[in-house]
């Protein structure tokens, strides 16, 4: 009888640990999803910033990005 009780306690412990693992995996999955969305946002911002810098450089150089300065 004692052996059956010990097995029951072990099964309950395993079920508790499994439930905790499932909760942890779900939390981590949500975090990865949110980070992926944030990375997408940052990539869009970086692309817009790059365009802005290129446009500013072209305007500053009169449309010639690689133009030599006049003192050369």
Description:
The protein has one helix at residues 2-60. It has 72 residues and is mainly α. The longest helix is centred in the middle third of the chain and has 59 residues, at 2-60. It is 82% helix and 0% strand. The chain starts with a helix and ends in a 12-residue tail after the last helix. The protein has one helix and no strands. The mean pLDDT is 89.
Low-pLDDT ranges: none
Oligomeric grouping of the chains: single chain
Number of strands: 0
Structural class: mainly alpha
What's the mean pLDDT score?
A: 89
- Strand content is under 5%
SSE map:
Layout: H1 2-60
Précis, in short:
This protein has 72 residues and is an all-alpha fold. Helix content is 82%, strand content 0%. The protein has one helix at residues 2-60.
Write a concise keyword list for the protein shown above:
single chain; 72 residues; mainly alpha; 1 helix; rod-shaped
């Amino acid at each position: 009888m004692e052996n059956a009780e010990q097995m029951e306690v072990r099964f309950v412990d395993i079920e508790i640990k499994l439930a905790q693992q499932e909760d942890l995996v779900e939390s981590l999955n949500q975090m990865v999803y949110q980070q992926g969305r944030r990375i997408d946002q940052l990539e869009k911002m970086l692309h817009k910033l790059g365009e802005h810098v290129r446009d500013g450089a072209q305007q500053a150089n009169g449309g010639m990005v690689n133009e030599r300065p006049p003192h050369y």
